[in-house]
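REQUEST FORM: STRUCTURE PREDICTION
Request ID: SP-0412
Submitted by: Lab K.M.
Chain count: 1
Length (residues): 514
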Amino acid sequence: MCADHSEASDLDLPLPVAGHRPLTSRLIGFDRRLFDAVAARHWPGADRVLPRLSRSANHGVLWFAAAAGIAATRTPRARRAAVRGVTSLALASATINTLGKRSVRRARPVLDTVPLIRQLKRQPITTSFPSGHSASAVAFATGVALESRAWGAAVAPLAAAVAVSRIYTGAHFPSDVLVGGALGAGAAFAVRGLAPTRAQLAPPGRPRVAAPALPGGEGLVLVANAGAGTADRVKALHTALPRAEIVVAEPAELGAELDKAAARAQVLGVCGGDGTVNAAATVALQHGLPLAVLPGGTLNHFAYDLGVEDARDLSRALEAGEAVAVDVGRFRTGGEAEPDAPGAGVTGYFLNTFSLGVYPELVRLRERWGPRIGGKPAAVLAALKVLRSDERPMVARFRGSERALWLLFAGNCTYHRPGLTPGRRLDLADGLLDVRIVHGGRRPGARLLAAALAGPETRSPAQAAVRLPRLRVDGLGPGTAVAYDGEVTPVQGSLHLDKLPEALTVYRPLSALR
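STATUS: Completed
RESULT:
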């Protein structure tokens, strides 16, 4: 994907200087002298290493391999860094190829002063200014660093070596490399403008609450869902917190193990996806315990919105006693009773989202197919099936008026979608339900896609959005399915949604915000 990897032999065209102002001529002269100085200098080992390194960066192969290696570590931050690096590289390469090379028709350097052993076996035929290899290298390294400083520091020396190799092999003048690098860095920041990094959007850090500090994890009993592939994360946490008690439970035994753990824990911990975290939050509420969440499932929205991505984040918060209070969504069915009236039964809680309409069917299909083909492929196939559905929309009553709808979504706190990134929550204690409705009508797939692409702030005949502390829906038929935090259950009659403000204490590393 680099702009200067093609080859030819007509490389010794003179650099035109006629018509340049004296200052420009002096700059070009200095550029040539600096190139000759590099050509005259010998660096031990560089004659073999740098030409090979330069060739390995052709077509972005080196950076795609680096991205694959970073992503293979399987941490969310590393995966985001790899994706951001490749995206930045793609933008830089496209910019260089479409604008940079065609705007300044500069000839390649004459190779008379460059030792033959350093020269590329096949020389580029494209114009010299700016350096596409340098732009791609700096774009990738900068993109990675914007998401993860540690990974950025790891790939920066490699990117610098590729940039230097373009001068050392005689492929570019120093100014070509400098400008190419500047364009690459600009591309990475442009990508960040379209898709902000998590560092730009600080995780929710209020309201801070008192929570016990657990040196070495003493007092923590963490239950890990064995069905969520949590072994690596549990091992990392045990290494960081050797005094913690860790229980690995099969999915069918998860509820019982959480109850047992809560009976002897100072802090209840859980490792798994959103459904597992929901079960642990319910137990923590019942026992009045703080909750420690280690993401370990297919979907980890609550943990990531909270700002906990791995064992390091969680162990730092537990040892320092850093925690926040978060809202808990609640839903129940039945009668005219108010939510807190005697006899009003709570059906369930949700930390992320509650929905009815077509989404519960999507969750049901994903859970059925996931064990056979994997969670993400199952989610894609389930979405395609739901979007192509020819079923009729459901009918419900709001404030005495019947309405047809394809989807009702209620988020626990307000979801935001900055730039092109998926929605996330910046405040987990705002006291509001983020309610969105996709109205019934023909072509449910088109309506649902339009609503998803337009975003919640766009009002149209196909969708509506409102934020409120409670909601009531009437007229639900028997067996109406609702989904909450990845779980599905049937309801009927009247449905009440409300909030428990700041009801749950959850650990998160507040020191990351300072």
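NOTES: The radius of gyration is 29 Å.
Reviewed by: T.R.
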